[in-house]
Automatic annotation (TrEMBL):
Record flagged with keyword Cell division: no
Parts of the chain that traverse the membrane: 38-62, 74-95, 101-126, 147-170, 190-209, 250-270, 290-309
Keywords per UniProt: Membrane, Transmembrane, Transmembrane helix
Chain segments annotated as coiled-coil in the UniProt record: none
Entry protein name: Putative membrane protein
Length: 337
């Protein structure tokens, strides 16, 4: 149920991004690169901030301990603070761009409603899981065979959706007189759907690993945050023996999860970027499309090195603390996608 809810939420978020983008393009009398980046920032925050809150509250126990409550409160305030900045940004954008008065209201109220809905649904899903408990997958290191299967699943999805897209869009664009333009539309449309399908597959194949990761700390949000600071952030935090074992186990799993998350974001943004480049080449709404493309590239440029560094830190931590793991678990390290 939780997996289905997450997939639906990702699809809904993607649809809302498309709708919000259309609203910005249609309702803004003027476009410039700087202004469009401001609007895109606000749109992204108002949609993905609530999605993050819903994911955290559905998957982790944020009330089970004092540490969990404190960690989640800080997490919540950070997200709300960024949403407040997004509200200011959309108001500034509306004033400068000369949008209708209802434009910023729709964005701000929509973001607030999504935040409440995300928290409500997330907590409801967590309560449902507590009422119908399902054992987390027991911990074990991620084997190379597992990684290969997950990468293969992503690749097969991409190829299958791309071929299917070529067939479907070949029929859709078959009536166009310009053969070169028709072929270009077929290829780019099929590629977009293939990248998005592969991105969703990257999230789905990471679900068992997330359950395995959660088992290392018993689902406690405060503990996983502390362990993450130690393993990924190189923070000097005192851990008891049980905490050290949990951190060592965490370090054997998190690199693969981070690799899959990086694959998801890269594939998703590649699909979105392809659409923007296609529109730029046709001369439609160039300022907005250029701004959106620059934002996608900037996020990837910042995110990829950030994730790679954290993967390396986790691998180093796992090697340095391998003696804390059960002696029969010798399959570490495994390559991440």
């Amino acid at each position: 149920m939780k997996v289905l809810a997450f997939v639906l939420s990702v699809l809904l978020a993607t649809a809302l991004v498309a709708a919000g983008t259309a609203l910005i393009v249609i309702q803004s009398p003027s476009h410039s690169l700087g202004l469009d980046l401001v609007a895109i920032f606000a749109l992204t925050v108002f949609i993905y901030g609530p999605l993050l809150l819903g994911s955290v509250t559905s998957y982790w126990d944020v009330r089970g301990s004092a540490g969990s409550r404190a960690s989640f409160q800080r997490y919540l305030w950070v997200v709300l603070g960024i949403e407040a900045l997004a509200a200011i940004a959309v108001v500034v954008y509306s004033v400068v761009a000369g949008t209708p008065i209802w434009f910023p209201i729709v964005f701000i109220v929509g973001g607030a409603v999504l935040t409440v809905v995300g928290l409500t649904i997330g907590r409801a899903l967590h309560r449902h899981e507590q009422a119908h408990p399902r054992a987390d997958e027991p911990w074990r290191p991620v084997s190379r065979h597992e990684v290969r299967l997950k990468v293969l699943s992503i690749a097969v999805t991409f190829v299958a959706v791309f071929i299917g897209g070529l067939v479907v869009f070949g029929l859709v664009f078959s009536d166009e007189s310009d053969c070169a333009s028709s072929l270009g539309d077929q290829l780019t449309s099929a590629f977009q759907f293939a990248t998005i399908g592969a991105a969703l597959t990257a999230i789905l194949v990471s679900v068992p690993l997330n359950r395995r990761l959660r088992s290392t700390v018993g689902g406690d949000f405060g503990t996983i945050r502390t362990v993450g600071k130690v393993v990924l952030g190189n923070k000097k935090v005192e851990l008891d023996h049980a905490g050290q074992i949990a951190a060592a186990k965490y370090a054997t799993i998190i690199p693969t999860i981070l690799g899959l998350q990086l694959s998801y974001l890269t594939l998703l943004y590649l699909g979105l970027g392809t659409q923007q480049v296609r529109m730029i080449l046709t001369g439609r709404n160039e300022a907005f499309n250029i701004g959106f493309t620059i934002l996608l590239i900037a996020i990837l440029v910042a995110f990829i090195p950030y994730v790679v560094v954290r993967i390396r830190r986790a691998r180093t931590y796992a090697r340095e603390h391998a003696e804390l793991l059960p002696s029969d678990d010798i399959s570490w390290p495994a390559r991440t996608p």
